[in-house]
Amino acid sequence: MSWVILILAGILEVIGVNGIQKYTKGNTVSGIIFIVFGFSISLFLLGVAMESIPLGVAYAVWTGMGTVGSAVVGMLFYNDSKDVKRIVFLALIIIAVVGLRIVTI
């Protein structure tokens, strides 16, 4: 169950980052709502997940999900670069996160 909570925390981190993008593009009200909602619940859930997942693993997975998720959101919705090299390095982050999960069973 802790891994499900950690995944949800990572998704909410991406929502918070998306709020920063909205805020900087002039959507101040919706941006602030996304930021406060996404980051506050994400950090809370990260703390809950850390009760049974080691700190280093939980934080690495959480930040990895935030990194990859934010990059994918940027590519899909904000016209960020979809360069092959960028996608390869994002895939490496995913491989590392999956590897951490495998060694932490």
What class would the helix/strand composition place it in?
Answer: mainly alpha
Q: Average pLDDT value?
A: 94
Radius of gyration, rounded? 14 Å
List low-pLDDT spans: none
Strand content: under 5%
Order of helices and strands: HHHH
Oligomer: single chain
Give the beta-strand count. 0
- Overall shape: flat
Summary of the model, kept short:
The chain has 105 residues and is mainly α.
Task: Explain what this protein looks like in three dimensions.
- The mean pLDDT is 94.
- This protein has helices spanning 2-24, 28-49, 55-77, 84-103.
- It has 105 residues and is mainly alpha-helical.
- It contains four helices and no strands.
Topology:
Layout: H1 2-24, H2 28-49, H3 55-77, H4 84-103
Helix pairs in contact: 1-2, 1-3, 3-4
Q: What are its keywords?
A:
single chain; mainly alpha; flat; 105 residues; 4 helices; 84% helix
